[in-house]
Amino acid sequence: MSTEHYSFTVRDRFLRYVQIDTQSDPFSDTVPSTAKQKDLGRMLVEELQDMGIADAEMDDHGYVYATLRANTSKAVPVICLCAHMDTSPDCSGTGVKPLIHAHYDGGPITLPDDPRQVLRPEDHPALASQRGHDIITASGTTLLGADDKAGVAEIMDAVHFLQQHPDIPHGTLRILFTPDEEIGRGVDHVDLDRLGADFGYTLDGESLGAFENENFCADKAVVDIEGISAHTGMAKNKLVNALKVAAALIALLPAGELSPETTEGREGFVHPLYWRGSAEKATVEFLVRDFTEEGLARHEDLLKTLLDKALQQYPGARGEMRVQAQYRNMLEKISAHPEVSDYALEAIRRAGLQPSVHPIRGGTDGAMLTFRGLPCPNLFAGEHAFHSKQEWVSVQDMQKAVEVIIHLVQVWEEKS
User: Fold this and answer.
1) Number of folded domains in the chain?
2) CATH of the domain at 251
3) Backbone torsions φ then ψ of 382, nearest 5 degrees
4) Which of 92, 89, 207 is nearest to 140 (CA)?
5) What is the structure's pLDDT at 363?
6) 54-84, pLDDT tens digit by residue?
7) Quick one: 193 and 297 in the same domain?
8) Which of 166, 279, 411, 412 is deepest in the core (most CB within 10 A)?
9) How would you write the chain as a 3-class SS string?
């Protein structure tokens, strides 16, 4: 397969997609959590249908399904290609203005709408390998949305390429675009029978050549604290402030370790994410992460011990910790199907890249799909500095991701 004379569409698709606000909302009870995610879903359905994918559709929950039919007589497993449409609630996704920094010269990139936002190579080491590339950023006041609209655009361009090159043999591909991945609900309403895939791949990774078949185990710990309310003018020896108990709990977390800002590699953490309430009642939500369930249990035991210590500082206060399982390390499930990883690594090599295999310090829709019975590791999409105003992606890296997808479907066909 050669893309030498192919006019990639991934850049222009990406530029369109990021201008649609698809930020999800963790405090919403609707599905999807924000109706605006469907704006992108409708666009994708229309573009797929324009390519000739007649069955492209979006369901009531905002999931986009589509099928690229097999063009081989071989019995090839059905492969799902998946990316999420929403962007993180951690940083504004409203009014994204994508900028192309053509032929990047290796120096700092200042974002014009907020000159305090400067991408410096010393802060973004991956930029060192991007000299000469076309770098896309936002303008400085929003995130970009490369996480995961880069993956969406790459899948769309790969489907477009395969439609334009029917001589390339492949099995049936099922396309899945999901809402609400950033708030941990991305596959809650996926209809696996409707999807009908045997194996899958998310396009939601970082650096060129990266492949991830292992991820954090994840729980959410919710701490509810009840104080004693009293009129502030007559509160002496009566008032017990639940907010102060919550603050004491957070202050007891170990300094210099066990937090996202102090850990790397296979180190886990406990991260206070949301805090809300009043003097009478307060709730703190923590992310608990580790690569093993045993590690999760240790971190949760520590958090419970710290809660007890905080309560001892404020007699009369009461507290309870509830643990909600979120997702688990997909490695064990995927290891039962070694071809899923082997074929992905072969596709990366065929695209002229050196595969880089490492665990995800996070989770993906693929991890959750894996535990629902659809083994689904993660391929690179080229996105960097996720969830921030300095998020960036290389056009050339996105094009390489498209190549990897095309090689991947060929490998599956050849090996079947």
Assistant:
1) 2
2) 3.30.70.360
3) 95, 5
4) 92
5) 83
6) 999 999 999 999 999 999 999 999 999 999 9
7) no
8) 412
9) CCCCCCCCCHHHHHHHHHCCCCECCCCCCCCCCCCCHHHHHHHHHHHHHHHCCCCCEECCCCCEEEEECCCCCCCCCCEEEEEECCECCCCCCCCCCCEEECCCCCCCEECCCCCCCEECCCCCHHHHHCCCCCEEECCCCCCCCHHHHHHHHHHHHHHHHHHHCCCCCCCCEEEEEECCHHHCCCCCCCCHHHHCCCEEEEEEECCCCEEECCECEEEEEEEEEECECCCHHHCCCCCECHHHHHHHHHHHCCCCCCCHHHCCCCCCEEEEEEEEECCCEEEEEEEEEECCHHHHHHHHHHHHHHHHHHHHHCCCCEEEEEEEEEECCCHHHHHCCHHHHHHHHHHHHHCCCCCEECCECCCCHHHHHHHCCCCCCEEECCEECCCCCCCEEEHHHHHHHHHHHHHHHHHHHHHC
Q: 284: number of CA atoms within 13 Å, CB side?
A: 24
Give the Å distances, CA to CA, from 94 to 24, 88, 272, 303: 12, 11, 25, 36
- Cβ-count burial of 305 within 10 angstroms (0-12 exposed, 13-18 middle, 19+ buried)? exposed
Which of 303, 326, 349 finishes a domain? 326
- Longest pairwise C-alpha distance within the chain: 83
Q: What is the pLDDT of residue 14?
A: 98
Tell me the per-residue pLDDT of 200-217, one tens digit each, with 9 for 90 and over. Answer: 999 999 999 999 999 999
Band the pLDDT of 102: cuts 50, 70, 90.
very high
Residue type, 137: T
Alpha-carbon distances, residue 376 vs 71, 124, 206, 416 (angstroms): 23, 28, 16, 18
Cα gap 338→213, rounded to integer Å: 10
Q: Which domain holds residue 165?
A: 10-215+329-415
Residues 177 and 33 grouped into a single domain: yes
The number of C-alpha atoms within 13 Å of 283 and in the hemisphere containing its C-beta is 7
The predicted pLDDT at position 3 comes to 75
Residues forming beta bridges with residue 266, ordered by sequence position:
none
Is position 134 within any domain?
yes
Check if the beta carbon of residue 3 is closer than 8 Å to that of residue 67: no
Give strand pairing partners of 215.
360
- Active site members: 86, 181
- Nearest Cα neighbor of 148 from 413, 379, 404, 400 is 379
Q: In what order do the strands lie in the sheet with 392-394?
A: 99-101, 135-137, 392-394, 383-384
